[in-house]
């Protein structure tokens, strides 16, 4: 049965559709820096994933597959879309391209992975800290912890504060459900089936997803292009918006 389209989204501009998918714990408002670059040539849909922003939580167990199903339902009336996803959003974009390829024109995957596993004791300790905060601390405390890693530099204070506000606004249960969905996500061995033009964008200072995971995604998709953005962490569209927008606009124009 096809899921009913329930995802909250905003629409701006006209032209070939572009779908923007945010990261874990955030919302569609993340893409404010990209809208001016896309608005002149594209109908741009900024989507709140289930339980995030103004979208309701999933009816049943949340998985990346179920998120992609809800997104496919939303896009039923659209022409094949350029799908842009950051982190969690990139996982949903990958799954959409596998489950409903007719809905996808191109993929832009920002700091993606096909399967994320701790690389060592440091990663394990950071994950345990996040899980502990999720279990016992106010969401503002968890939000500050996550945002500090995303935007650690003093000149990124405004980005840090915006991230704290958005992350803290995500209900604890929705955040936990999405985190569990990411932990179970595994697209290894499947990405070779994707036959859409694909751009993989990697921040060179990303401490969340290792570069080798992004290289593996690009290597697995025929013809995919990998671009490493200097001076960028995990949230490349936000900490390097001008560089990211140039990459995105040029990629869309060529496809």
Walk me through this protein's architecture.
This protein is α/β, with parallel strands linked by helices. The protein has a domain at 9-116 and 186-254: Rossmann fold. 42% of the residues lie in helices and 15% in strands. The protein has ten helices and seven strands. The chain has a seven-stranded mixed beta sheet, sandwiched between helices. Strand 4, helix 3 and strand 5 form a beta-alpha-beta unit. It is globular. The model has no long low-confidence stretch (mean pLDDT 93).
Task: Report how far apart the termini are.
Answer: 32 Å
The counted number of beta strands is 7
The CATH architecture of the domain at 9-116 and 186-254 can be named as 3-Layer(aba) Sandwich
The number of helical segments is: 10
Mean pLDDT: 93
Give the CATH class of the domain at 9-116 and 186-254: Alpha Beta
Oligomer state of the chains in this structure: single chain
As a whole number of angstroms, the C-alpha radius of gyration is 17 Å
Structural class: alpha/beta
Largest beta sheet, briefly?
7 strands, mixed
């Amino acid at each position: 049965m096809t899921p009913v389209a329930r995802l909250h989204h905003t629409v701006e501009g006209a032209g070939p559709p572009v779908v923007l998918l945010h990261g874990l714990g955030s919302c569609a408002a993340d893409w404010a820096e990209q809208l001016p670059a896309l608005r002149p040539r594209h109908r741009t849909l900024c989507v709140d994933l289930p339980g995030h922003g103004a979208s309701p939580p999933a009816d049943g167990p949340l998985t990346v597959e179920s998120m992609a199903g809800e997104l496919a339902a939303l896009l039923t009336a659209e022409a094949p879309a350029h799908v842009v996803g950051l982190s969690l959003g990139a996982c949903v974009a990958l799954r959409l391209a596998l489950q409903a390829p007719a809905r996808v024109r191109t993929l832009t995957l920002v700091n993606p992975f096909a399967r994320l596993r701790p690389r060592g004791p440091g990663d394990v300790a950071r994950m345990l800290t996040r899980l502990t905060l999720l279990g016992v601390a106010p969401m503002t405390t968890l939000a500050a912890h996550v945002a500090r890693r995303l935007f650690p530099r003093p000149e990124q204070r405004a980005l840090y504060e915006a991230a704290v506000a958005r992350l803290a606004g995500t209900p604890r249960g929705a955040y936990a459900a999405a985190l569990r969905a990411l932990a179970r996500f595994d697209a290894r061995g499947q990405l070779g089936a994707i036959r859409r033009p694909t751009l993989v964008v990697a921040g060179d200072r990303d401490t969340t997803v290792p570069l080798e995971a992004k290289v593996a995604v690009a290597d697995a998709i025929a013809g995919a292009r990998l671009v490493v953005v200097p001076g960028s962490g995990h949230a490349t569209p936000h900490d390097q918006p001008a560089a990211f927008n140039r990459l995105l606009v040029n990629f869309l124009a060529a496809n």
